[in-house]
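Subgroup meeting minutes
Present: P.N., E.W., G.H.
Scribe: E.W.

1. P.N. recapped why we're keeping a running log of single-chain structure predictions: easier to compare across weeks, and new members can see raw inputs and outputs side by side.
2. G.H. added today's entry (330 aa).
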Amino acid sequence: MKVQWAEDDFDLPCGVTQLGSSVPEDNRSYVMYHGTTRMNAQSIKAAGFRRSPDGMLGCGVYLSRDLQKASCYPIDHPENDRVVIKVKVNVGKVIAINYQGHPRQKTWHDWRYGPVFDTAWVPPNCGMVPSGLEEDCVWDPNRIQIIITRLGLDNPVNNKSYVMYHGTTRMNAQSIKATGFRRSPDGMLGCGVYLSRDLQKASRYPIDHPENDRVVIKVKVNVGKVIAINYQGHPRQKTWHDWRYGPVFDTAWVPPNCGMVPSGLEEDCVWDPNRIQIISVIEPKPVQVNNDFPVNNRSYVMYHGTTRMNAQSIKATGVFDFNGMIHKEH
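Output recorded in log:
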């Protein structure tokens, strides 16, 4: 079962938002996101967007309604130099480019090849984007209005408060809400409460646990004195709160992409649970599927998977052929 981890605002770690998977309607306005570098973000804020000369959809401004998609860009670029720009876009006339080699894949705005479109949309899970997330390409930069710029995760500063997240089970979440957090006896950073400023990281836990029983607790943390544990075998990796080994720290922080966490996402470990204030519990939102018992004489949207060749035949004749069994559409 696919789930969506959603927040109502934009003040959350890059990487997770509610997926924009519905078909964009002509002439509607949508919130979208663009991932870039800090330097490029400053240029875009000053002079506006400019079309990329080429790409999967040809020339245009590449965006996505999916923050998770945008936050991955620029790919292979240091996370602390990534920025996500939140924008509002009037999509104009939209075409869906839903398979590689689509006849209008790079010519959707070229009148010489047919009707002119303002936005090309790649649906999620259509096989064109490795991540399975949706993509949009907008021809006219004037259709794009900047709302806000969101920086990647900066180094936590001593004695500042941050929003963080903790992934757990529904039962454990009830216990934590009732009695507060308790330190884990051990882990990568030793004893402490494990959290992350990255919702994407927290939403994966407990690993190998059913998604419909996972929840994420959103908290506010005063980090106190922070130490960066940025490589395996760091001399204070598990002793950062032990005065016998040097200065005492309140929070241990694993930077993103330092090689300690397989996902490359940041991790935090807080010693004192009293530094943690619960804000809310975020529940997974299943992708909407109507599994109710069908009611007599009601109409329902349904789907049929087939080959491209069969699809053309069905569109032309209204006949389904399943291994020699014919069913004609009425």
